Structures are given as structure tokens and as C-alpha cells.
Amino acid sequence: MSMTPRQIVTELDKYIIGQDEAKKAVAIALRNRYRRSRLPKELRDEITPKNIIMKGPTGVGKTEIARRLAKLVGAPFIKIEATKYTEVGYVGRDVESMVRDLVSVSVRLVKDEKMHEVEKRAKASVDEKVLKEIKDELFKQGDITSVEEIEKNYHDGKYDDMNIEISVLEKAQQFNFMPEFSDMNISTMIGGIFPPKKKTRKMSVLRAKECLLEEEADKLIDDESVYQEAIRRTEEEGIIFIDEMDKIIGKGSTSGPDVSREGVQRDILPIVEGCTVSTKYGNVKTDFILFIAAGAFHVSKIEDMIPELQGRFPIRVELNSLTKDDFVKILSTPKNAVTLQYASLLKVDNIDLEFTDDALDEIAIVAEYENENMENLGARRLHTILEKLLEDVSFNASGEYPLSKVTIDRAYVQNIFGKHNKNSDLKKYII
Q1: DSSP 8-state assignment for residue 294
Q2: Which of the given ranges, 179-183, 191-195, 277-281, has the highest pLDDT on average?
């Protein structure tokens, strides 16, 4: 990954509005990984990632920045909530499970890549099996279509909806009895004793091709090499986003053990410092995983974290609350803008949805007002507003009529929410 920090920020700008300081920090952290990879091994082993902690209200882009960063480089990424973990020795998830989850994500990433590499070879075998079943089915029906024509129709997709019988491997059921044994797959252990069974199932040709392609590709992939590469990527490129960090900060409980607060901080510390975690794919060193922590920090402060953990997050970034101008840009600028999402959804039912500039301005005013006078939901408030705004349009759209254009302007928005936004009631839309 040879993108410069400036190029990384440019890519993030396509999806995230504002928060330049945070985007700059993560861009530098990502570039430093590339710089480190170009150094001699002796020096490379001495350089650890500079972990980041973000402070800011909900819905301002903390999670999205981390997620888009990982997607940009295809790095293994997980988002976890710190409040889901308990201190070692108590019933619940222990902090080491976050590393195991990250390895599982990495295995899926690598396996998908390997599947793509062997897809062409696997497809030839799949086509042969499916064509044989199609010919047998047509023969039973008394169809006298020539072999050449059957093959042509098959490749043209004309048999995709035809039902055929094929033998597929029966997938073992997953059994995870308790959170602390979540990494122990009982079905895998049993599968090592008893060979997998095949089951004859009736399904469409399209579905049969998918099932058989997965089976054939699996045969061509060396699982051991997948696991080795997955562990390497986890150790060298993995990103763990720890949300709700502020919820585990406290001075402890006077009435009993505080198993989900300071105890969790102490357990997270060795993971962030660097240790070896045992997983079903092999041992994973956490020394070079990039950790990004985040929280609102309304009640507690970053300084209230235990000092050792504070020291492991040297880069601190504060994200700002969103303004009306930010909301206007969020509605119109990103490639995945929420207005484009609703327009695409309604186009399925022959509604050509269009928002005027003054409508976007009015929606931004409503969002800012609601965030100031109710809970501050950040950009998530826009989903709430648009759901109410487009409720009647969505309800009446059925796809039974020709393409119809619906224009949302300022007057329409004011009619729904009231001119001064004081009579709007969005509480029923907030989950």
C-alpha cells in the first residue's frame, strides 16, 4: 500500500465530511505501516504502531473513519464494544476474543482471494457436473434438444431457474455453548473423526452452481497456507476499533467487584502492549496490530484511564459536533450519500426521487435543531428525518405505475416538520 497520507485523506473525503484532524491522524498511521514494511527486519521489529484514541459525540464519523481506512487497504478489521467484555475470571467474553475475531475476519479475507484465484479452474468442473444433471433432467422430460444447443442455453443462463438434483456436502452445525468457549468449534472436532456426508438436494441450476463452485474451490485451496497468510496479515495489517472506551472508565465500585470497567482496562493493556494470543488457526502476536479507541467522554475523561493504558494511545484526536453546513455536505457530497440511497431504493418502485438544494438546506436546519434540542445523534439523525420525510412516498410507491418524478423542495420539508421545526416529533423513529 503505497498511498501517501494526502491520497488517503482524499479517499476518505469521498465518504466522510469534515473531521480533518482525525483523518490526518489515521492516514499518517497507515502510511507509517508502509514505511515500516520497507525497513530492515531488525529495525522493523523495534517500531510499533502509534495507537489512536478518538473523542467525540456519537454519529460524527469515528467508526466510519476506521472502517473506511481498513477497506481502503483491504486490511483485517473488526469493531468491538469495550462494554461487552468482562474481567478475566468472570462469566462473559474475555478481551483475547477480540484477537480471535480479527483472525477469523482475516481468514475470510484470504480465503475469498484464494477462491477468486481458483474460480476459473473450479468453474470448469462445476459446469461439467451441472450440465450432466440438466441433460438427465431434460431426458426424463422427453426433451430432444441437441447437446450443442443444451450447452449454449446453459451458458446463456436459460436453465438458471430449472430445478435439478445434486449431491452436496452437508455442512456441520456450529455449536458454541458458552461465551468463554466461543473459539472452540465442537463440530470441527467431530468432523475430524467422522468424514463429511453428502446429501442429495433439489435446487435451481443457479443455486447449484454456487454450491458446487464453493465445494470445488475448497478442494483446490490449501487451508494451511490460508491460515498462515491470515495470521501474517492479522499481525502486520490488522486494525481493531474499540468503541465505547469511555464506558469502562471509572474509579471502581464500592459495593463489589467492577468486572466490566477498570478490570477490563487492565486486561486490554497486555493486548495493546503486545502479547501472544492462542487461536484455533495458530498463535497470534498483537505487537503490531493497530488499535483505534473511541468514545464520547462526556462524563469521564481520557485522563481517567489507567496511566499504563493511556500511554499506549499516544495520538489523541477530538472530533467536532456536526453543523448545518456539515449536514448539507453529508446529504449531497459522499459517494454513499443517504439521499442517493433513498433515491435508489424508490427507483425500484418507479419513483424518480429528486431533492432540491433548498430542501437539503432545510433538512440540515431540522437536523441541527433536533440534535441541539434532543439527544445529539450526529449524522444518524438524517436517517431519522428522511424516514419521516419520505414516509408517504415510500408507503404509496408500489411499482404498478410508470416512472413518476417526485421532487422534494423546501416547502415539502417545512410542511412535514413545521416552518420552525418546533412541532416535529421524531422520537418514534429513534431506536
Answers
A1: E
A2: 277-281
Q: Rounded distance, CA 277 to CA 412, Å?
A: 57
281-334 pLDDT per residue, tens: 999 999 999 999 998 888 888 888 889 989 999 999 988 888 899 999 999 988
DSSP class of residue 304? G
State which fold the 5-104+231-318 domain adopts.
Answer: Rossmann fold (3.40.50)
Q: Is 79 left (phi over 0), alpha (psi -120 to 50) or beta?
A: beta
C-alpha distances in Å from residue 89, one per residue of 58, 96, 279, 283: 32, 13, 19, 22
Residue type, 426: L
CATH T-level assignment (fold) for domain 324-424: Helicase, Ruva Protein; domain 3 (1.10.8)
Query: 373 CB contacts (<8 Å, ≥6 apart)?
Result: none
For the stretch 57-82, pLDDT in tens is 888 888 888 888 888 888 899 999 98
Domains of the chain by residue range: 5-104+231-318, 110-227, 324-424
CA atoms within 13 A on the CB side of 125: 15
Q: In whole angstroms, give the CA distance from residue 300 to residue 27.
A: 28
